[in-house]
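Hello,

Our lab assistant flagged a job as stuck in the queue for most of the afternoon. It eventually completed. Since we weren't sure the result was trustworthy after the delay, we are filing this so someone can double-check. Below is the sequence as submitted and the structure that was eventually returned. Let us know if re-running is recommended.
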Amino acid sequence: MADRTKRDALSVVAAMAAAAAIAAMAWQASTAEQIHRAEHCGYDGRYYCAMAMGHRGILPYNRRILTPAIVRLLHFGPVTARFLMLDAVALFASAALTFALVRRLALRRRSTAGRAASAGVVAASLVLLAPSTWHLAFSYPALTDETALALGLAWIALVDSRHWSSIAFAAAVTLCREAWGPPIMIGMAVAVVLCPRNRRLWFGNIAASVLALGVGFTQPVSGIGFSGPSGLPLVGHMLRVHFSSPHGVAIAVWMTVSGLGFVCGLLPRFGATAYPDRITRVIAGVALGHFLLAYIGGSDLDRLLLTAGVLATILVMSTLAKMTPSSTDLGVGVLWLATVLVWRPWTVVPGDDAGFVKTFALHAVPWVEAERRMVTDAVMVVVLALLTGLLMHYGRPARQRENTSPGRV
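-- returned structure --
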């Protein structure tokens, strides 16, 4: 019976993860109330709505031209409904691409088909359950993050296939979020070193991203509205916000954990086995770029870390899939549960500013309330961490013989 429990653990975790993701999406769709501010467009979203209606944006939102342009082409219903439809397509595509990437990498490393699929389902469920995906989109659809995530994952899949269309996707995702530009360059620099035979393709991706950055940074700017700091002043401002006080550091640590999720914590445990081939090292380079930029990109640190968390989860789950069944599978289940409990996908989000901020902007709530939330989460996570440690200590993972192909980039 014990052997059977170990053998089936990952598939059981996958089934529970899929059911939870479906239930959470249904609950959020039926209970969420769109933010009231700016006719449901929201804080930053009001500028994206203006761009979708043909007006100019302000810095830095005017650089993110692709999502508003697509919304403007849809020509039906309220502008926020069009944003929500685009978000839905992008999030389902992101989940499918996450599943496909995990499964592809796992099978390349001689995983069984069943374990590769189960690992892919767990990773995809985390994409759908993250607070910055469906939960946020139902309340605040006028953003560019969801579209950028889908285009970025598609770009990684095409890079892995060495497909020349990756160049177009490198430009598209950079026009969607300029923060994708530097990570693309880091990933392609890794590819140039590890796979020089395709150097023309890698340099083509870099050139496309640089060109897209040039297009974005030369967009006309509206003189109406608040334009916050950008460039080097923004870097200094965000470093002071996150690290100039004990309260700021505590909130930054909490948002880092919330943004990445606990499953990513297995990456150091797996060590070099998580990077056996070239594509995993390219993914790691892109993830590192997003991780570093998140700390200087804005105050919503957990939202900005979404992409880094998704990419790290892909590396972890594709590594886990190629291992023989063990208590590590149960440990992943506990870490998945801890992540979901911290994310609180069952929270009903009211449309008023206070309710929205309380749910999605811990950095903006009074310190007493933030402290209460962090202490509650910490106690819950410590209990689950102890359980995870016991499960993973008694029955260390027995890895299959590596015998992996060099991998493709």
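-- support follow-up --
The delay was a queue issue, not a problem with the job. The result is valid. The chain has one domain: 2-221+238-393. The chain is about 70% helix and 0% strand.
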